[in-house]
Design brief:
- By secondary structure, the chain is an alpha/beta fold.
- It has seven helices and eight strands; from the N terminus they run H-H-E-E-E-H-E-E-H-E-H-E-E-H-H.
- The strands form two sheets. The protein has a six-stranded mixed β-sheet. Strands 1-5 form a two-stranded antiparallel ribbon.
- A hairpin with a 6-residue loop joins strand 7 and strand 8.
- The longest helix has 18 residues.
- The chain starts with a helix and ends in a 6-residue tail after the last helix.
């Protein structure tokens, strides 16, 4: 009997197999860029200065030549760091490739810089972070926020396990005594941890 039932099942027409795979739409980078506004970012440089457990990222100024090294040393000493803890500065230039006209979305530039900072934090952890100048801060704070709204404040950085004090660049601080006073007040509680 069982063999007769099995034989009858084999005689029934089989239903077409259903394709249960999900259809995946691949979107090229060009198509993604077409959905976000493209911007042309003016070239800028960031100076990354590690001082012990402090990382200071400063927006470098091309048009103002001021003795920022002296201010940097004063900051380090005021926070309790020794001269030997001040490492050589590393410079991040945008665009990364010189002579290339760089047009991309603000979000992709933000992701590039955040990945760069994340790499720096993974290789050598820090206890304190100072983001000095608009270009050093605006790509790390919430994209809907304004840099000026966070000046002289400690801000939690989304996606990072650290917070940062946001202030004007070292060149701006040196050029304006009022900014210098506000900066010293903002960092007065940041003694070496």
């Amino acid at each position: 009997k069982a063999s007769a039932v099995l034989a009858s099942l084999d005689d029934k027409p089989s239903l077409p197999k259903k394709d249960v795979r999900q259809k995946t739409t691949l979107i090229s980078a060009a198509e993604v860029a077409a959905t976000e506004p493209l911007i042309s970012v003016e070239p800028f440089s960031l100076s990354l200065q590690r001082i012990g457990s402090l990382l200071l990222i400063d927006s470098r100024s091309f048009d103002i030549a001021l003795p920022t090294d002296r201010l940097l040393h004063s900051i380090a000493f005021a926070l309790g760091y020794k001269h030997s803890e001040i490492e050589a500065a590393e410079v991040f230039n945008w665009p990364v490739t010189a002579g290339v006209d760089c047009v991309q979305t603000i979000d992709s530039l933000r992701l590039d810089l955040q990945a760069f900072l994340d790499g720096k934090l993974l290789t050598n952890t820090i206890d304190q972070l100072f983001l000095l100048g608009e270009n050093s801060a605006k790509y790390f704070i919430n994209k809907d926020s304004l840099y000026a709204d966070f000046l002289y404040q400690k801000v939690d950085l989304a996606g990072f396990s650290t917070s940062a004090i946001i202030a004007p660049s070292l060149s701006q601080i040196l050029a304006d005594p009022e900014l210098k006073r506000k900066f010293w007040l903002a960092i007065r509680d940041c003694k070496k941890l």
